[in-house]
């Protein structure tokens, strides 16, 4: 058995394990199985994923990250995770500046730890071309999907990872929809790399509610990239303006995007909290 020091953090209820690189190296040969054990909520620490900062990356970024999901798989990007990762690296003095660059599977991401210790992240530009998402539909907005039980009009957006955004009717319960339909849609053939699924209810021009089925995790309290994808889809469909409050079961995020149906060439910005839960030592 090997003792490993860890930090647990959460952003809008999306919770993560943070390991310093020297701690990760102790058990590197046990991954990805170690990720599943650590993230297990009954026999491990319990988390939606694990992040490890890598200093001196072989890129032009300040840092690189290693990202394992709860099922042991890897993913390109996680918005709530990036906020926790950024604050962890700033507080641990792994970086010595509030705004820095991180190399991820989705490319270079730029987080900034603000004076109130919330974190604003430049999430980059949304990817809307079906083949790049990837999405097998002929168009990415309002494409029909039949899952065997119900017909949906889906909006495919990538924020470095694929998302399927579905706008619910006034009388529909988005949490129940996520539970009932999320898994089937995650594995639908339209999404060759599987997909995150967001069920969205528009409350006003500047506020939406979102329930998330996260790829590789299932129901989660929040998803940062999912909040971004939901706002992009809402703006492109004419439902919302360019700054939107996103209510998730675990908390609230602010998403800003200056794009519209005529010009989508703008970065998406996400601002929200990144909070410590506890630190500890575990045997692996």
Concise synopsis of the structure shown:
It contains 5 helices and 17 strands.
Q: Which helices and strands, and how do they pair?
A:
Elements: E1 3-11, E2 14-18, H1 21-26, H2 33-39, E3 49-55, E4 63-69, H3 79-91, E5 102-104, E6 107-113, E7 119-124, E8 143-146, E9 151-158, E10 162-167, H4 174-186, E11 196-204, E12 207-214, E13 218-220, H5 224-236, E14 243-248, E15 251-257, E16 268-272, E17 275-283
Parallel strand pairs: 2-3, 4-5, 10-11, 12-14
Antiparallel strand pairs: 1-2, 1-17, 3-4, 5-6, 6-7, 7-16, 8-9, 9-10, 11-12, 12-13, 14-15, 15-16
Structural write-up:
With 284 residues, the chain is α+β, with helices and mostly antiparallel strands. The chain folds into two domains: 3-117 and 274-283, Diaminopimelate Epimerase, Chain A, domain 1 (Roll), CATH 3.10.310.10; 130-266, Diaminopimelate Epimerase, Chain A, domain 1. The chain has helices at residues 21-26, 33-39, 79-91, 174-186, 224-236, and strands at residues 3-11, 14-18, 49-55, 63-69, 102-104, 107-113, 119-124, 143-146, 151-158, 162-167, 196-204, 207-214, 218-220, 243-248, 251-257, 268-272, 275-283. It has a 17-stranded mixed β-sheet that branches. It starts with a strand and ends with a strand. 45% of the residues are buried.
Low-confidence stretches: none
The average pLDDT value, as a whole number, equals 95
Radius of gyration: 18 Å
What share of the residues lie within helices?
A: 10-25%
How far do the termini sit from each other? 5 Å
- Beta percentage is 35-45%
CATH class bucket of the largest domain: Alpha Beta
Structurally, the number of domains stands at 2
What would you give as the CATH superfamily of the largest domain?
A: Diaminopimelate Epimerase, Chain A, domain 1
